[in-house]
UniProtKB/TrEMBL annotation:
It comes from the Eukaryota. Residues 602-781 form the Ketoreductase domain. The keyword Oxidoreductase applies. Gene3D superfamilies: NAD(P)-binding Rossmann-like Domain (3.40.50.720). Keywords: Oxidoreductase. The keyword Membrane does not apply. This is Ketoreductase domain-containing protein. PROSITE patterns: ADH_SHORT.
Amino acid sequence: FWLKPFKLKIFRDPKLFFQGAAKLLFLCAKMDFDFDDMDGDDKDKVRDFNAKWIEVLEKPEVQKEVKALREQCETNAQFEAKRAVKLGPYLDPLFQESYIELEWIENQNWALKAEDEEIAAQFKKISELFYMGKLGPLELDKGDYVQSGDSAGVVLAFRAGSYSVRFFPESMRKLEPSSLKVLDKQERVFHILDTALMVLCSPEGQGALDELRQSSKKEEFEEKKMDKIQKVMAPLCKHHGMELPAMMEAGKALADGSTKVAAKCSEIDAALAYTLGPLELARGDCVEISGVESEEGKHLNGKSGIVWAWFADKGVYEVRPAGEQPAYLAPGSLRKLDDLEKTKAIQSYIMNVLSSPAAQGALEVLRAKCPNMMAYSKKLPETMKQVSAPALESFGVDYEWYNKMLESHPKDRELRSMAKRIDTLTSFGKIGPWGLEKGAFYEAYDIKDSEKKGMNGTAVLILSWDEGKGAYDVSPVGKTADTTQLPADNLRPIADKTFASKDEAAKFQKELQEIYDSSAAKDILARLKTDKPDVREYLVALKLALLDLQKPLLKKFGFREDLVGMNHVQRAMAPFEADAEFAKRFQELERFGTQEMRFDGRVALVTGGGRGLGRAYAKILAARGAKVVVNNRTRERADQVVAEITALGGTAVPEYSDVAKTPDAIVPFVLETYGKIDIVVANAGGLDDHRFEIMKTEYFTSLLQTHVFGHFKVLKAAWPHLVQQKYGRLVLISSESGLHGNWGQSNYGACKMAMASFGQTLAIEGFKDGVLSNIVCPVGLTRLTNDLRPIPLRASDWELTAVAQPTDKVVAFLAHESCKTTAGIFRAEEGHIQSLRWQSDDQFVSFEGSNPNALEVIAAQWPAWGEWKKVSYPGAELHSYRPGGKVAAEPVTGGSKANPKAGDKLRFNERVAVVTGGGHGLGRSVSVYLASRGAKIVVNDTDKQKADKTVADIKAQGGEAVAEYSDIYAAGEAVVEAALSSFDQIDVVVACATRRQDAPFESTTFEQFSDSINSDLVGHVKVLQAAWPQMFMGRFGRIVLVTSESAYHGATGQFTYGAAKGSLVAVGQTLAMEGYKYNLLTNCIATVDDKMSDEELEAKQPSVVPAIAYLCHESCKATAGIFRVSGGKVSSLRWQSDEAFADFDPETGDAALESVAAQWTDVASFAKVSYPGQWVHMSYR
């Protein structure tokens, strides 16, 4: 599938195509794709069928027909066409009863004849009885080698005037006889050796030999190397019909008469050698580089790298310096390092990696997740492994070897100095010149300022360091929304109090029990239950009331008399919790007075509730009194969860519909069973991960059926009932892959971002009727994530069932009647909950849309990441109907951006751009603008008249353009074929086409919804799938996906449009990841101009057009960007996370739900923030 576009269209560079195809083979090999899947049973099947085939062919009446056909037919194609008719009555029954196709058995015979004498003899007999003889006008035999361009392949057949030629690895092409050159023996052998060398020098080939080099001495290596390399070489050996020793023997027989063949033989010998070159280095040896004098190489002096290969004909080593491109260096420039020197080189490289923005971003996310230093220390080693992996891989060692070397040299001064620097880089968060710990509690003291002196003695949380004011940003404990600044002189560490012994801890427990048994405690509980009917308000007030009761006891035992002191008590009890009875008593004390959150009288539907996260959601709701309908297409799993619920006294029934196929039956079943529906948890889904170059359209459509189309029908059926009863809670399960993209998950991410987008619109439209909608992105070990792990690390089904899913607390709270939050997007992992929102850099780029040099002005200003000095929150205004009202923009801390002088004119000469929807509206404006700057345009539009008019206007201005009229959903690949047939290439895709159908959710039909998703998402996926390999081969591509603000935060009446555009955002984020290293850059852009009519857009160039044009230009290096344009202002968007939103102990089971409720705020304070998407996209750049 990946190679299909190349079989059909012109190759600008066949050599690049061949290299790309070879790279694909190695990719498949890494994925354990079995090209040589013929085991013994399969060979027996071929032998048995051949025998029956020969038996039929030898019949006199059959051979009479064959002889007549040979006399009648001039070409092999004629012979085969007539043979199918004449011999069909004899052969069809045999092929049908064996379930075998002719092409399959021919290929198997060809592949196996070299390794199985019986099959070879059978196939020779079949060839005499069944085939015409020589193939085509060149009179070739099957198996002859021919050359086309720079590539050579094996002739397999001649049909319909074309030769079928197989090129390694396993790509078939149909070629005209006039395009082929028949190779002589010397040329054939050279080609065989060339492909053998390519496989031997691949990472897989040298990796197999390295494994043997490291585990054996030279004599043993020479004895075993052919066996070791056999598996890697198997696909090539099958292609050529000979083993590697035979290839080498054929080469050496011709080496005296051909310098080219002799050189290849020498390179193969070097690739198979135990040591490389005159320095007798082994592949993977670490060397120091010095004495390089060339301009392009002298920056490598003093650096270290690993030896990769020796090129005898050029007299150079291939060396791969850490973090650099491969270098080809003379032996005199290299010095082999011993293990200690190698360890220092690795340590130095890791230190540099840890200093990078990507690594610090990863560590910042970890710091944000961990509530304290102890938790951070537990998780740091795994993160360090991930951060160090590229460095260790570059030097050809593993983490265990590296640690062992560090332990072996504890007194080496240089290693210790670097280790100290690494410790600083990986600390929990020492900030400011005094090195206070970010996220830690300190005590405010000795404050003289009259407005702040009341804080003396109170505990504060360290948030950040303000360099300009020379003070720390802090917030009082329990009041994270109230921030102030204090200098380091007014902050001192809070000592962590502990119990001297278990007896002292037990005494504390006993006295605390006496307090809780007192009449004062009972009076407090009675008063709170009367004054605070809302369970959330009750839980918050309870914690403060219990603090007042505990203060004398805390003072008596030496603890602080505040919330920090209560936290210290919890930590002080931890060392004694091995005693189960002791731990149980303290847990009961911790839950004193807690009012349980119940769902009595509520009916909940959980789709995909038969296992994993869905199972956890169903069980917690049922345990708290809800009547639960457990939907799962696998009856056994749904029944099992229902049995678990009922065994614990809950109420639940199974429902077996497949959300992808029969979603219409689900809600009627709920209503028939329980007479109402209050809660929908849209959880059902699946994964089908593939990198985009091998992603098929059906991988998108199959996931859409479950995640998007199925849940649309479920929500659509439930909606009128929720609106009528003025109550409903919707929890849509999304994913970080939807928010930020993820490798291999362009399809899954698209579905999950579509759910996030339409969940936001449901929040807007449902709020007035009491229907609240929120989105949760859970992180946990489930069946889906388990399948992504390496096979040895995968959990069993039993282990998966036993895994706790703490994220169920978030879902349960959002489903509860006390929850007033709506339109929220939350990330939940273990005991950590983050609230997410879009943040806009409002001073990213400014320009005047009417300026003819607007493109150059934009290019001159465009920053790498943005400065984020003046920010706003674009969804806040839209969602101001919620509790908490509007969110103000952060204050400006820097002046406005200067409008720089435009530079040289930016041109698109020799670039070919496809613009979908290019005949009208915004697409037309983009087409005309790019053409005016020299681009060749393919104007795609289903309206032939408008497409033709746009092309005519472009040509009238001296530009080049062609019209293309395909519906991209029906034939998206045709748009790219038009570019290739007209201009021989494709460089830019601007996705403007849309099928917008605005309507409130209640009146949106499934046909409208699916039509929009298929057009905007699936149609553009088809275009991009056809364009992607072409861009990949050219190592250049710019993709701009035109989205909408309704994709980011929903919009009234734009349920369908927002979901469609949201799915494109996720696709764009994933393509940015996967394409970056090949210079294929992808960005998303939204504009207020999408509210203008086509007539308005055509009358005046939209201000977004120059910004789109810049994202298409080769000078633009932005990727994974999400931008919005209004007037003459480009804003960059990113997800901002409130890292201090809520934390709970994931080990306490269902009891943690009340802890979540007590911390929850309807409007997050964002006092401690991170930017999760930003570090994701920094990590690969």
